[in-house]
Amino acid sequence: MSTEQQRYFAYMLRLWQVSSDGEPIWRASLESPHSGERHGFANPELLFAFLGEKTGDLAQHEEQAKDISKD
């Protein structure tokens, strides 16, 4: 995968609310239109953590590439 491809992520986001012991809880899923891969999340915080990992990993790889090119 080229560097340019790694800088782009596309997902279809689904959000819905369920009830647990009378309390509303948000659920979420992301689906890649390219691969069909689906990720489910029990709450929005887990969704945000997943996205943070995706974009954080990308930033880390870019920093590593910069360090290598300086050598």
Strand order across the largest sheet? 1-2-3
Please provide the ordered H/E string of secondary-structure elements: HEEEH
- Provide the helix percentage: 40-55%
Could you tell me the mean pLDDT? 84
| Shape category | elongated
Using only CA atoms, what is the Rg? 16 Å
Pick out the low-confidence regions.
1-5
Distance N terminus to C terminus? 23 Å
β-strand number: 3
Structural class: alpha+beta
Count of individual helical segments: 2
Question: How many structural domains?
Answer: 1
Largest sheet: 3 strands, antiparallel
Tell me about this structure:
- This protein is of the alpha+beta class and 71 residues long.
- It has one domain.
- Helix content is 44%, strand content 31%.
- It has helices at residues 3-6, 44-70, and strands spanning 12-20, 23-31, 38-41.
- Strands 1-2-3 form a 3-stranded antiparallel β-sheet, with helices on one face.
- A hairpin with a 2-residue loop joins strand 1 and strand 2 (23-31).
